[in-house]
Structure formats: C-alpha cells, structure tokens
Design goal:
alpha/beta, Aspartate Aminotransferase, domain 2, binds pyridoxal-5'-phosphate
Length: about 425
C-alpha cells in the first residue's frame, strides 16, 4: 500500500494546497491543460482517505452485515453502524437510528413520498414545494397527485432568483400537509430562508422536508436547529461514493411510517400470515446494504469533519465572492441569481450567442469541466426564461487561480465563436 494512501487528513485549519494532495485526480491533464474541475454540484471528487476506507473493507474485513456470527461479519456490521453514527453526529441528529442509508437524495425523497405520503395524504390535501426544486423533489409528489388526488403547489421564485416569501405565506394554509424545500439551489446556489418557510409549515401543522443535497457538502447542518422532519442528501456530492445517500427522519415519524422496500433484513419476524418490522433504521434498509459505500460515506464525513464545516464554508465563501466579481466583469455573460441573500459558489450563466453545450465543449478543450443543461430543474429554468445554462460549481479543493483560468478561457471562447 502506498505511503500516500496511509496519510491521514490534515490536523486542523484549512490549507487548500494540502487538501488538493488528497485528490490525485486533480493532477490529471485534460487536452494538455491541468484539470479544473468545476462540476461539483453534479458530483464531487473523492479523497484518498475515502477510497482507502472502502478498500480496507473489501481487502480486510469484507462480509455481509447483521447475519454472520464470524469475526468478519462482526467487523463489517460495526463499521456500517458506525457510519450511521458519523452521519448522525455530522448533522446533529438526536439518534443514529434516525439516519437511513439509501442510494441517493432522489431515493430519500421518494421514500418520504411513497411511505409517509401514501400513508397520510388523502385527495384534496396539499403539498407545497418551491419552483426552485430539483426534479427529485417534484416528480414524487406529482406521482402522488396523480394516484391519490393531492394538490401540488409551488412557491414562486422572483425574477432575481429568490423565493417569494409573501406568496409562500399565502400558499401554505391549514390544508397544507407537507412543505418540501431545497436547502440550497443546484442552479443558482441560493441558500433558502429555511426558518421562514419552516415556520409557515409549522403554523399550518404541516411536515417540513429539506432537500439538503447541495447544502450539507458545503455548510454546517444541524437538523435539530433546522427543526426539519426529514433531510435528504447524497454521498457522492460530499466526497463520498456513488450509490449511497441518507435520509434523516424524526424518530417519532419513522416509527409510525410503513416500510419502503420489503424483504430481507427489514423484518423482525415473518410468518405465512404476516410480518413485523425490524428496529430503526433497518426497517428502511431492506436487502443487503451498500456496505462499502456506507463505510465510504462515513470516511467522507470524517474528512469533512476534520477540515471543519465552518472552515470549508468560509473558504468557499471567499472563493465564491472572487468568482462572482470576476464573472460579473465578463462582457456578454448573463449570470442568474446571486443578487440577494446568501449563496453557495454555484454559478449558472449564459454567454451571448453561444449555446451552453458548445460553451461546455469548448471549455473542456481548456481542461475545464463545467456542466451545461437544465440541471434537473426545468420549472426554475422556465421561470427564469432559459432552457439551458452553463454551470460552474466550486468545492473545497478549487482555487482562485482556477477562477482565473475559467475567466481567461471564457474570453478565448468568445473570440473563437466571435461572440
Ligand atoms: C438539490 C438537489 N437535490 C437532489 C438531487 C438528486 O441527487 P441524486 O441524483 O444524487 O439523487 C440533486 C442532484 O443534483 C440536487 O442538486
């Protein structure tokens, strides 16, 4: 095993040069340029420490969890449970039993709709989400609208890209049974005013669901302070592996909800007549779990915790402010959002006369990875009057020098397209 794989995370503080050493992929050259990876809202890169934790599981104590009496089974079970505990501490859940491992944020939100929603919603009940949602917090509710006859309402977004709170106040009424909100937008970077919307939900007696896929990688999250009923996230957007995410849910709700998927591991007893359910969180983790991925997510959380979420937030804030100022000075660049309120370093923009896909393709020739498209948020795109944008999304290993490379490349591309 190489020396570098055995390195631990930096002791404290935030040293981006040191952080970058943990991400070997950042040494790659793309089309003869150093890779500038700015597609972090889609998925982040992974540190050696996370990959090594997964390798250790596969190479040293690989076994299925929960069923085996043997040593390997014991070790894997402990490590997998410990990963739940790490996530619970990371978001300040009251108990690790409130953390369900799922495949990703999409599955987490589907789980809420298909279990709590199906069991508790009736025709005419209202679910309110925002126009800023990722499709994963829209489509599951549309499915319930079509099958149960619930009413789905959308909190509008203003032309400068923030939630219309006055409209939210009108939309959330005693008929509202659940309010679902994206904590931070994957298109605009906007960090939404969670407490205001939560208070409106509480006033109506509705549940409050947060989609934290974009927030939890970048800022300290405290689910008790947020006082949300559910919080959904994806491991791969926070340095963890693909195929694993989590849903936090208040224990009182999880206990009364029916299971999501059924079969092995989620039961206490099965007879020909009926079955009873396992304790939390296993009641919601049917079948063989993504054990390596769960352990990898725990290692990613360790990595973030060691760096410190407040340090990460501060570092990215400074980087984002710099990027904002530089992007605003690019002529012919239309930036969406970032006019009011707090935002993450996620920038959606268009270059006059250049299709976003052509722009992304041209940036790739400079080694710069950005996303182009509708970012799985078509209702928001429609509201802001565009079909597609370019999106540059930053993370803890990006630098101001990379902002400069992006801005320089945009200048070159404009010349290339004579835009
Ligand atoms: C805000 C938000 N919610 C949910 C998701 C869905 O994440 P996943 O595809 O990992 O399920 C994404 C992914 O981009 C997102 O940005």
């Amino acid at each position: 095993m190489s020396e570098s794989l055995l390195r631990t995370v930096p002791a404290e503080g935030f040293d981006v040069a040191r952080v970058r050493m943990d991400f070997p992929i950042l040494q790659r050259r793309i089309h003869d340029h150093p890779l500038v990876y700015l597609d972090n809202a889609a998925t982040t890169q992974r540190p050696l420490q996370m990959v090594e934790a997964m390798n250790r599981y596969y190479l040293e104590y690989n076994a299925n969890i929960h069923r085996a009496i043997h040593t390997l089974g014991y070790e894997s079970t402990v490590a997998y449970e410990e990963a739940h505990k790490k996530v619970a501490r990371f978001i300040n859940a009251r108990s690790w039993r409130e953390i369900l491992f799922v495949r990703n944020a999409t599955e987490a939100l589907n789980l809420v709709a298909m279990t709590w929603g199906k069991a508790n919603l009736r025709a005419g009940d209202e679910v309110v989400v925002s126009l800023m949602e990722h499709h994963s917090n829209i489509v599951p509710w549309q499915m319930l609208r079509d099958s149960l006859g619930i009413i789905l309402k959308f909190i509008p977004v203003t032309s400068d890209g923030v939630l219309d709170l006055e409209a939210a106040d009108r939309l959330i009424t005693p008929k509202t049974k659940l309010v679902g909100l994206v904590h931070a937008s994957n298109v605009l970077g906007a960090i939404n005013p969670v407490s205001e919307i939560r208070d409106l939900a509480r006033r109506a007696g509705a549940l409050f669901v947060l989609d934290g896929a974009q927030s939890v990688p970048h800022m300290a999250v405290d689910v008790q302070a947020l006082d949300c009923d559910f919080f959904a996230a994806s491991g791969h957007k926070m340095l963890g592996p693909t195929g694993i995410g989590f849903l936090y849910g208040k224990k009182s709700l999880l206990q009364t909800m029916p299971p999501f998927l059924t079969g092995g591991d989620m039961i206490a007893t099965v007879s020909q007549e009926a079955s009873t359910w396992n304790e939390l969180p296993w009641k919601f983790e049917a079948g063989t779990s993504a054990v390596a991925e769960g352990i990898g997510l725990g290692a990613a959380v360790d990595y973030l915790t060691t760096l410190g979420m407040d340090n990460i937030y501060q570092y990215e804030k400074e980087l984002g402010d710099y990027a904002l100022q530089r992007l605003r000075n690019v002529s012919g660049l239309k930036l969406y959002g970032h006019e009011r309120g707090e935002s993450l370093a996620v920038f959606s923009f268009n270059l006059e006369g250049i299709h976003p896909h052509d722009g992304a393709n041209a940036l790739d020739r400079f080694g710069i990875a950005v996303r182009s498209g509708h970012h799985c948020a078509q209702p928001l795109m429609n509201r802001l009057g565009m079909d597609n944008t370019l999106r540059a999304s930053f993370y803890l290993y990006n630098t101001k020098a990379e902002v400069d490379l992006l801005v320089d490349a945009l200048g070159e591309i404009k010349k290339l397209f004579r835009a």
